[in-house]
Amino acid sequence: MKAFVRVMKALSDPNRVKIVKMLHQRPLCVCELQAALGIAQPTVSNHLKTLEDAGLVQSAKAGQWVNYSLAQDAGPYAVALLGHLKDWLEDDPEVARLLEGLDGIRRESICAARPGR
């Protein structure tokens, strides 16, 4: 029961659901998620940690970035919910806007625009 509750709690926050929806499109780094959601970097990182702890998301270092993607070896509850979430909320205006804007969000341009880079 603990694994089920952990997955459900992880998906109980709207921003975490949005992160999962975006990760269905492609792997993303924290700066891309931050740009898409318009929330602070520490908040994005906390959301990702919660999703990772629930077995929904995995991370992999790639050069200077850490890429986040949907977990490939997720448990049965995570697999079921990730499968359903792929098709759910497609008609939600906020989710649709996020997914449409994802093509214009690229880490190279975000990092190039930051001072000190």
Automatic annotation (TrEMBL):
One of its GO terms (molecular function) is DNA binding. The keyword Transcription regulation applies. The gene is aseR. It comes from the Bacteria. SMART domains: HTH_ARSR (SM00418). SUPFAM superfamilies: Winged helix' DNA-binding domain. Pfam families: HTH_5. PROSITE patterns: HTH_ARSR_2 (PS50987). This is HTH-type transcriptional repressor AseR. InterPro entries: ArsR-like_HTH (IPR011991), HTH_ArsR_DNA-bd_dom (IPR001845), HTH_MetalResp_TranReg (IPR051081), WH-like_DNA-bd_sf (IPR036388), WH_DNA-bd_sf (IPR036390). The lineage of its organism: Bacteria, Pseudomonadati, Thermodesulfobacteriota, Desulfovibrionia, Desulfovibrionales.
